[in-house]
Amino acid sequence: MNISIFSLTESGRLLSLRLSEALGADNRVSRLCHNEYIDEDAASFWNLGSMAGRLYKRSDAMIFICRCDVAVRAVAPYIGNRNTDPVVIVVDDSGKYVIPVLSGHIGAADRLAERVSAAIGAECAVSSGGSGKFSVEGFAEANGLIITDKSAANIVSEAVLNDEKIGFASDYPHSGLPGELTEFGMCRTGIYAGSDTAAKPFDVTLRLVPRNIVLGIGADDDISPETVSAAYNEAISAMGTDEERISLVLCPRRLSEAECIKALCSRSAALCSCRSEELLENMRSHTGGAPICEKRIGEVTFTVGEKQVFLDFEKQP
Fold first, then answer.
1. Is the pLDDT of residue 18 over 90?
2. Backbone angles phi, psi at 150, to 5 degrees
3. Domains, the chain, ranges and CATH?
4. What is the DSSP string of the chain?
């Protein structure tokens, strides 16, 4: 998640440092401080509204350390719809309260707000009527699933809030279903967990796809990172691999500088260095089996495997 943190005062700057440390382990965090209260690790701005506009479409979440009305005025000109808007959270300058103000369902503002409040010891005012019901986005995040259709996710979330039974179909083993979901009967809305792009078991089907692809890249010692990048797109296309599903890249350390690998790791994939001759052994250890696909482009070999998936409804994001 790309998170932008805005602060206007010295106390806000100090809070932004704490939040950056708390959220930076598993997110890309950018700190934006007013020009009068700046440090070497933050970008500066004079006009909050202008800076917010520049980052609005590029951020998954925006945290404003200021008065709520100031934050609302800063983002108001750029608000589109909840399918595409970033999460917007306000933290008061003293760090006592955290308020999610935008994108509370599919944008997961409530969950991020709760994490922010825990990091600074603040009181969290959840805005989207959290009721302890099943959360599509929480389940997807906890289990490494990709939400492929935000509109369908919104419909499912609204159906849950309206006490409508939600169908569930899965290609993977899973724990017991929560009360809102059922594998039996006819349901208007439902969730399908699997990789079949044609699957549509419900009138409104939300398809959740696991981010469980392991990509192995092997090459001789004299092959450069540039050669790997040149072959990458052809290999991925030939193997029919969805880049967004790649969760782990296995390759020799020297190839980790390839632009294609750096791009994958900047999004969500982890990197595991290994020698080319150990590639298949490492692939089996991570997937529990042999690669499902292999493609050689020039002097570079690409292999793809899938981690085993178990869906746990009790797991927390």
1. yes
2. -70, -30
3. 2-124 (3.40.50.11220), 136-210 (3.40.1390.40), 213-306 (3.30.420.180)
4. -EEEEEE-SHHHHHHHHHHHHHHTTSSEEEEEEETTS--TTSEEES-HHHHHHHHTTT-SEEEEES-HHHHHHHHGGG---TTTPPEEEEE-TTS-EEEEEE--STT-HHHHHHHHHHHHTPEE---S---S---HHHHHHHTTEEE--HHHHHHHHHHHHTT--EEEEESS-B-PPPTTEESSS--SEEEEESS-TT---SSEEEEEEE--EEEEEEE-TT--HHHHHHHHHHHHHHHT--GGGEEEEEE-GGGGGSHHHHHHHHHT-EEEE--GGGHHHHHHHHHSS--SEEEEETTEEEEEEE----B-TT---
Residue with tokens 């569930």: 168
Residue range 213-247, pLDDT digits in tens: 998 888 877 788 888 888 888 888 888 888 888 88
pLDDT tens track for 47-58 = 999 999 999 988
Between CA 51 and CA 78 the distance in angstroms is: 12
86-129 pLDDT, tens digit each:
899 999 999 998 988 887 555 567 778 888 988 998 888 764 45
Contacts of 266 (CB under 8 A, 6+ apart): 28
Cα distance between residue 251 and residue 279, in whole Å:
7
Q: What percent of the chain stands above pLDDT 90?
A: 39
pTM over 0.70: no
